[in-house]
Amino acid sequence: MRRMCMVLACAAVSFVPSSALAQRWEVEVHGGWLSVPEISGGSTSLPTPGASFATFPGVAGGPSSRRVSSWLFGDGSQLLNGVLGSNPGFNLPQRITPLDSVLNKPLADRKSGGNFGFRVSRDLTPRFTAEFNFDYAQTPMELRAGVQSGLDSTTGSFGLAFQNEAFLPSLIFVGKNVTASNSVQVEDGSEILTTGAIRVNLLTHGRFRPYVTGGAGVVKQRGSAPTASATGAYSFQMLGSFPMSERDTVAIRQTFDESMFVGLVGGGVHIPVNQRSGIRFDVRAHLGGTTDRTLVSATPNVAVAAAAFQIASLTTPSISFSSFAQNIPVPPSSLSGPTITDFTTFEASKTRTHTLFAVGYYFRF
Asked: For residue 7, what is the enclosing H or E element?
């Protein structure tokens, strides 16, 4: 019986070509291009308006203001522009340009870039092959059009508004000093694609051997998240005796999913050069869901002075400056809203397709 089994095993092996037994593994190195789509669509929002307060509490029906966390965007910009344009009142042409258009979109997009990778495959049958793929692509982050100009416009208009003599005359606001600045940081990025797949060879012989591929894996997006900031500050002495100083700081950052699960579909063609090596042209689409967000933080700072003072405009709406402590029953500064931490102003959650075009050289053994 044992001898018969050995004879049958030898007979079975004799029907399989020796070349097929010897060349079931394949290793490939390849290079190409990873196409990455821009972020599109998404929902937008801004923080809700702050609490209102009377700027002259002893005057029935007197003007009121609101607590704002920043003059640079949202309700704070709306309040400041309402004061500047009030009629009767200042009726000034100056307006602060809010950061809303910067906040309601991504700061940057991941761009397409060059790719390098390798592939290890093993034939399961002449028709089906299992693959492991590793790819590294240089995909730098690039600042979106309008972000830098939007920041410049906001900080520039902040300076013009608070330096305006009709709004804050130097005769009353003595030693006035107004500053505004912004910054942006966008770094290079990359992606690592690790996938497993099954290749279906449409033809198993011939000069050209087309195939289709399906599988799944993980795409890891690398690189620091883009950030931006804007700061405005002003200081003066009321009537030359009562110091006041207020600072308005806004920080913006973009977040993205560092890892995303993807499905893989693709195809290509083998072109054998000899029995053990050849060229492969390949295209693969990696489809996965990901979420991108823009987050804003605002930190208002109003200095408390020993020689405290409060003053407000007689406009509708009104603006208040105050150097009293918060627990004193005096109308506060308008820039006394709560600190805002990572409020989501833009969010896009959708399926995106990262398409890899590659040309490689493979070796069979």
From this structure: helix 2-14
| Residue 77 is assigned to a structural domain of this protein | yes
Whole-angstrom distance, CA of residue 22 vs CA of residue 138: 37
Of 16 and 24, the structure prediction assigns the larger pLDDT to: 24
Task: Retrieve residue 354's tokens.
Answer: 């990262």
**Residue 105 to residues 11, 36, 259: CA-CA distances in angstroms?**
69, 18, 21
CA torsion, ordered 154, 159, 160, 161, to nearest 10 deg: 80
Residue type at 235 in one-letter notation: S
Tokens of 47: 């923080």
Q: pLDDT digit string (tens) for 94-117?
A: 999 999 999 999 999 999 999 999
Task: Answer for the pair 304, 327: CB distance below 8 angstroms, yes or no.
Answer: no
Residue of 202, 191, 213 lying closest to 264 (CA atoms): 213
- Answer whether residue 9 is part of any domain: no
Domain count, the chain: 1
Whether the CB-CB separation of 158 and 97 falls below 8 Å is answered with no
DSSP letter string, 190-224? EEEEEEEEEEEES-SSSS-EEEEEEEEEEEEEESP
Q: Is residue 2, in this structure, part of any structural domain at all?
A: no
Task: Tell me which residue has tokens 């009121």.
Answer: 64
**Residue 307 belongs to domain with CATH number:** 2.40.160.20
Spatial CB neighbours of 295, under 8 Å, sequence gap ≥ 6: 252, 253, 254, 255, 342, 343, 344, 345
pLDDT tens, residue by residue, 216-229: 999 999 988 899 99
